[in-house]
Design a protein that fits this description.
Layout (H helix, E strand, L loop, with lengths): L3 H9 L16 H7 L3 H5 L6 H12 L3 E5 L22 E7 L3 E10 L2 E10 L5 E4 L5 H13 L18 E8 L1 H8 L3 H11 L1 H24 L6 E5 L10 H7 L1 H14 L3 E4 L5 H10 L4 E3 L11 H8 L4 E6 L1 H6 L3 H15 L5 E5 L9 H14 L9
Parallel strand pairs: 1-6, 6-7, 7-8, 8-9, 9-10, 10-11
Antiparallel strand pairs: 2-3, 3-4, 4-5
Helix pairs in contact: 2-4, 5-8, 6-7, 8-10, 12-14, 14-15
Pfam family, one: URO-D
Protein name: Uroporphyrinogen decarboxylase (URO-D) domain-containing protein
GO biological process, one term: porphyrin-containing compound biosynthetic process
Length: about 400
């Protein structure tokens, strides 16, 4: 019998494992809930760090873990700022204010071009959110961000958190699509990001060219770090066709995707793209025009537009498919029986011949019943075998 890590890695590489891997997306809210602590303990004070809470959740539910260090902080040395500016030593806390159900933290970093400010709201029972983002003036504040990211980096040569996971999880490093990176820094969030792309396309092309060059160099180092990552994740939640147009996606994200997936292919490490919501057109685009290996979460209607059976038929020669079980109608509001029925439909639609990971269509809500998650996992174990009696 394969270990969870072996099962996930085999699937990422389009192989046929002993059974269908099952890896529900519970990377944030559910691990925090299971600690029994205020969420600010995990997100703000790292007691425990979210990565540790996630591994404990993997142990509790017994699924095939997907440990994804999106910030890659454990592979980098100190510099002015981390890859997305979330470097803890760069930003000085200038205010921390506790309210009944939230803690507001305001941070500041100085540059020769002026200061940048960032404010987050850490809630008692939900993930944090920005209440003030650093890029307020598009041109002036980006110049400050650029200064922070331009310093020569001193990189470490190994991942220190690898020991946390053993054989419980696959281990991934990662990056953001350019649109998502800019949205995370821009005051005004998604709507202002779209205005920037429409109002100042030449400037935004310069921004994203700089970001692409920076990320390619950073990922080269991550791919050389030891042990070699099992996968490189590319985060693209704000790049869904539920949010932006195909024109914006192609103009600002596609070149980045081509370069990152080409780099991963050259290094022999699978690339993995997350775009929730309406992603059918994106699946087709990346299939035809990039070297992407794994696509998730393939949301079905009403939140998404992916037909899993059709996706398997059209893209099975190149793409590993991951996801599709509805998080709200089924995982959150459904019964264990309904979870089993939908999971079985997904296995029947996409598991044949390998190249499929049973997972949820994006993040499971905080209060998703534990019994529904257990039902998803048990369905894969019972009906997802590639070997022996009752095999697919």
């Amino acid at each position: 019998m394969m270990t969870p890590k072996q099962r996930m890695v085999t699937a990422f590489r389009h192989g046929v494992p002993d059974r269908v891997p099952v890896s529900p997306d519970i990377s944030n809210m559910i691990p925090c809930r299971l600690t029994g602590k205020p969420f600010w303990d995990i997100y703000l004070y790292r007691d425990p760090p979210l990565q540790v809470a996630y591994v404990e959740a993997v142990k509790y539910f017994g699924f095939d873990g997907f440990y994804f260090t999106i910030l890659g902080g454990h592979a980098v040395g100190k510099a002015r700022a981390g890859p997305w500016l979330y470097w803890p030593d760069s930003w000085k806390t200038v205010e921390e204010r506790k309210e009944e159900r939230a803690i507001i933290v305001r941070k500041m970093v100085e540059t020769p071009l002026g200061a940048l400010y960032w404010e987050k709201l850490y809630r008692i029972d939900d993930p944090p959110c920005n209440t003030h983002s650093p890029i307020v003036d598009r041109e002036q504040d980006f110049a400050k961000v650029k200064w922070l990211l331009e310093e020569e980096w001193q990189w470490e040569k190994k991942y220190h958190d690898y020991r946390l996971i053993g054989d419980l999880c696959s281990f991934g490093t990662g990056t953001y699509l350019p649109i998502d990176w800019w949205m995370s820094l821009r005051e005004g969030g998604i709507s202002q990001m779209i205005f920037d792309c429409m109002d100042a396309p030449q400037f935004m092309e310069q921004v994203f060219r700089f970001y692409t060059e920076h990320e390619i160099e950073r990922l080269k180092v991550h791919l050389r770090a030891k042990p070699t990552p099992d996968v490189v994740g590319i985060q693209g939640s704000a790049s869904s066709f539920s949010v932006i147009s195909p024109i914006i996606f192609r103009q600002y994200n596609l070149l980045f995707l081509k370069e990152v997936t080409r780099l991963c292919q050259k290094a022999g490490v699978p690339s993995h793209l997350h775009v929730c919501g309406r992603s059918k057109g994106i699946v087709e685009m990346v299939y035809q025009e990039t070297d992407l290996n794994v696509m998730e979460p393939l949301e079905r209607p009403p939140g998404g537009d992916v037909d899993l059976k059709e996706a398997k038929r059209r893209f099975k020669d190149k793409l590993v498919l991951k996801g599709n079980v509805n998080t709200f109608q089924t995982m959150f509001r459904g019964t264990p029986k309904e979870v089993e029925e939908e999971a079985l439909r997904c296995i029947e639609a996409a598991a044949s011949g390998g190249g499929f990971i049973l997972a949820t269509g994006d993040q499971c809500p905080r209060d998703t019943p534990d019994e529904n998650i257990f039902a998803l996992i048990e369905t894969a174990r019972k009906f997802g075998k590639y070997e022996g009696k009752n095999k697919i």
